[in-house]
Design goal:
By secondary structure, the chain is of the alpha+beta class. Helices cover about 60% and strands about 15% of the residues. It has 19 helices and twelve strands. The chain has a seven-stranded antiparallel beta sheet with strand order 3-2-1-7-6-4-5, with helices on both faces. It has a five-stranded mixed beta sheet with strand order 8-9-10-12-11, with helices on one face. The two termini are about 20 Å apart.
């Protein structure tokens, strides 16, 4: 059956919609705004210097060069082709202001104000760290400029002239810190745009969760990001790690996550290492009134499971109903700019994507169910009916053949084969119609019979350890039986073993088979390494794993795990 996600993909949008201009990204809009302000600053400074008669010499040339550079920036932003390395632009602005103050000391008061704009823009566009660094650099440049002017005799060394420098030192970090919410908003909106543009819900819920977790880990700089949705709704729990990649967790790990998350309040919570004698850090819940007993222990358990030092947990809701949690962890001490409140604002966008992907999965499942029913009905009409007619004919022939007839045994064997094939077809049709592997307990009796037969024929004592009932499909039971038989034949052909042990069981959603011999103990040294090629290929075809080991250093054990 073709992949329904491809077969039922929506058509491409019309050309008119495809040609519509994309909305301007938040960072591009801010960069264009900064380029416009920069051009206004150039004009104001030029008017001030012209009024004071200080446009001559290299000062005027530097002003013209800066004006040309500002115009190029504005032109590039307007055409959607910004200049490279935008992080250097605020630093160029500060350096230009400092150099202009050297050539026009009388305009120092106005040029001092020009230090504020690049600091604020650097904070908004490139983070608080860039803003504070640039503010310190601007303060140092301003202080050195005042000191140099006084040393050259251009200005009197008046302590009051250092007030602007002190103002920059206090005002610029304040502006940088005040712009932090705007910077967080810009990053969140940009990330939402990336999610909407890059994540295709038609890929299904698990693929969407994996992509979202990986993208969040890259954008936040986190060590681990986990998306844990409700297992009661057959939703996945996925983890994206910088060391282990992105993967879906097992059902057991999913259950452990949910056990700890159930102890948390229905509000964002965070865990950070305590520092400065315990005055900062610890467990926080936003708002604090929602703190409940045991939340701190639950956060610590979750941090231990993810092997992180810092952890943020954000509940995911859809129309007021809890649907899961988002976990972001880091192994470092530093505070990043992705706070729990910012991630909580991002949660609705994620849930919209997850809801669409879940609806796609439901649609695919419904389409697959209808297709299975149709195929099962076609098989029943086209395949089973002729087999039933043939079986009835053979049964009639068997009734007409006396027991002393030489063909009686062959006819009985043919009838058994026919009944077996009809049962196999009925099981296939039942699975197609229901979508579930019902199966029966055919594997355990077959392995027991083969173990007894093998011991009698070849003199190798077989010790079988298995439950009384393992329900599988006939096809899977046949495949596992052939693997056991091939492993025993390898023991017979390639070793001098006197005993072999077969351990057959189910582990979670898989069948586990272990076959061990005592050839190493019999000869007093390990047998030569041997990798059964056909057995490895059969295991690989079924999506399983094969491992060969020597538990006691002498005897060989083959461990096979096959998903049911």
């Amino acid at each position: 059956m073709p992949d329904a996600r491809t077969e039922y993909a929506p058509p491409d949008p019309p050309n008119a919609l495809a040609a519509a201009p994309a909305p301007l990204a938040p960072q591009s809009a801010l960069q264009r705004f900064g380029a416009g302000l920069r051009s206004i600053v150039v004009m104001l400074v030029g008017l001030e210097l012209a009024a004071q008669g200080q446009l001559g010499g290299w000062t005027g040339g530097l002003l013209l060069a800066y004006a040309a550079w500002s115009g190029a920036l504005l032109w590039g932003e307007a055409r959607g082709r910004p200049l490279p390395r935008p992080v250097l632009q605020p630093w160029i602005d500060v350096v230009w202001s400092a150099v202009m103050m050297l050539g026009a000391p009388d305009a120092a008061d106005m040029l001092t104000v020009t230090f504020i704009l690049p600091v604020v823009m650097a904070s908004v566009l490139h983070g608080v760290r860039q803003g504070v660094m640039l503010a310190c650099f601007a303060t140092l440049a301003l202080a050195l400029n005042v000191t140099g002017s006084a040393w050259r005799g251009a200005l009197a060394l008046d302590p009051l002239r250092f007030l602007p420098a002190l103002g920059i030192l206090t005002l610029a970090p304040t502006a940088a810190l005040l712009s932090r919410p705007m910077h967080a908003l810009r990053r969140r909106v940009a990330l939402e745009d990336h999610f909407e543009a890059e994540i295709d819900p038609r890929r299904g819920l698990e693929a969407v969760c994996l992509t979202a977790a990986e993208r969040l880990r890259h954008e936040t700089g986190a060590s681990v990001v986990a998306v844990v949705l409700q297992s009661s709704r057959n939703a996945p729990a996925v983890v994206s790690s910088g060391t282990e990649g992105s993967f879906r967790t097992s059902a057991g790990i999913h259950h452990q996550f949910e056990e700890q998350l159930a102890r948390l309040p229905g509000a964002p919570a965070s865990l950070t290492p305590r520092r400065l004698l315990g005055l900062f850090g610890g467990v926080k819940v936003h708002p604090a009134e929602t703190m409940i007993d045991g939340a701190g222990d639950a956060l610590s358990e979750l941090a231990g499971m993810l092997e992180v030092r810092r952890l943020i947990v954000v509940p995911l809701r859809l129309r007021g109903r809890p649907c899961g949690h988002l976990l972001i962890g880091s192994t470092t001490r530093h505070r990043d700019e992705w706070r729990s409140s910012t991630l909580a604002d991002l949660a609705p966008t994620l849930m919209r994507l997850f809801e669409r992907a879940a609806l796609v999965d439901e649609l695919n499942e419904e389409i697959g169910a209808h297709a299975r029913v149709r195929i099962g009905r076609d098989l029943h009409d086209s395949a089973i009916q002729p087999y039933l007619g043939l079986r009835y004919a053979i049964e009639a022939l068997a009734l007409r053949t006396p027991a002393d007839n030489p063909l009686h045994g062959d006819i009985a064997a043919l009838l058994d084969l026919m009944n077996h094939e009809v049962n196999e077809l009925r099981e296939v049709i039942s699975v197609l119609r229901s979508g579930q592997q019902k199966g029966d307990n055919a594997l355990v009796p077959a392995v027991r019979r083969q173990a007894r037969r093998f011991s009698v024929l070849f003199g190798i004592e077989i010790h079988l350890d298995c439950p009384d009932d393992i329900k599988t499909s006939r096809a899977l039971a046949g495949s596992v039986f052939h693997m056991v038989n091939e492993a025993l034949n390898n023991v017979r052909k390639h070793t001098s073993a006197r005993n072999a042990w077969i351990h057959l069981t189910t582990v979670g959603d898989s069948i586990q088979v272990k076959v061990r011999d005592d050839a190493g103990s019999v000869q007093g040294k390990p047998v030569n390494d041997f990798v059964p090629k056909s057995l490895s290929e059969r295991v690989k075809e079924l999506g399983g794993m094969l491992n060969i080991s020597r538990p006691n250093g002498l005897d060989t054990e083959i461990a096979i795990t096959i998903p049911i």
